[in-house]
Amino acid sequence: MMQEAWLEGPKYKVFLHYNRIIFLSLLGLPVCVVGRVTSGLSICMFLQDKTTPRTTRMLLIVLSLTDVHYLLFSLIIFQPMTFCDYDPPLRGPLLTRIIGVLANVLEYFRNWVVELISVERFVVICLPIRSKVWCNERLTTRMIAAYFVFSHLVQLPIICYLVIEDAGLPVISCAVIEKAMPA
């Protein structure tokens, strides 16, 4: 990493650092802003749309809401961290870490909602008669809630670890247990 990228050029590490900043600022910021605007417009459109089935509309609105919130967290945390060399841009490091974890929760949740949309579309197209029974608002709401809870449960160990670490409490690891055991 300490070699020159090209003859009489910068070192690889410096070159990669500047490339990361340039790409994330030139691509990341506009994508976040445009993504928030288009997701907001999608929410407005699906609230007005009456031709799309209710369950599909509900899933698409939840997907757009998730995108809006994820991109907001990205603008607040990930973009400034790029410019600050991963120093927390907010004063509370725990808050910064928790928001980072919540962004991951939203990303997991978004992926599960996309899967739910594809299953719902499969049922509607391939099993149109059964879709009248299976694809109802009550079941869709329950599935969304279950995926939301599951996404949080998956990240719960990391959230607990960050809270314990920020409080200054000792974290029990295998190395600590091995030191405590007599030989």
From TrEMBL:
Transmembrane residue ranges: 20-47, 59-78, 144-164
Keywords for this protein: Membrane, Transmembrane, Transmembrane helix
Name assigned to this protein: G-protein coupled receptors family 1 profile domain-containing protein
Pfam families for this protein: 7tm_1
Subcellular location: Membrane
PROSITE patterns: G_PROTEIN_RECEP_F1_2
Domain of life, per lineage: Eukaryota
GO cellular component: membrane
One GO MF term attached to the UniProt entry: G protein-coupled receptor activity
Species: Dibothriocephalus latus (Fish tapeworm)
G-protein coupled receptors family 1 profile domain span: 38-183
